[in-house]
């Protein structure tokens, strides 16, 4: 009896994970963009290679991001500004991507 209950629970979890993945794939293929998160980012430093680096809070977690649309003359270290998180760290990318 316990074995049947365990198998039913495992099957339900697999079905739930599969349904969630299919639902996400359908929404992306329908042209819907994932919701972008608005944050307040504090500019830290400018790098010639990557641009402006900033820190921001994602909930209660301190995160590091790089602005994709700010040039050197458009910011100053220590300044806080509203930003939108447009990309998360994946693969070899170490930082969040931010847009002012």
Find the structural class using helix and strand composition. Answer: alpha+beta
β-strand percent reads: 35-45%
- Going by CATH, what is the homologous superfamily of the largest domain? Nucleic acid-binding proteins
- How is the main sheet built? 5 strands, mixed, barrel
Counted by DSSP, the helix tally is 1
CATH topology of the largest domain: OB fold (Dihydrolipoamide Acetyltransferase, E2P)
Query: What distance separates the N and C termini?
Result: 58 Å
What oligomeric state is this? single chain
Fraction of residues in helices?
A: 25-40%
Radius of gyration: 20 Å
Number of strands: 5
What is the topology, as strand order, of the major beta sheet? 1-2-3-5-4
Following the backbone from N to C, one meets helices and strands in this order, namely HEEEEE
- Look at the structure and give the CATH class of the largest domain: Mainly Beta
Count of separate structural domains: 2
Mean pLDDT level:
81
Q: Give the uncertain stretches in residue-range form.
A: 25-32
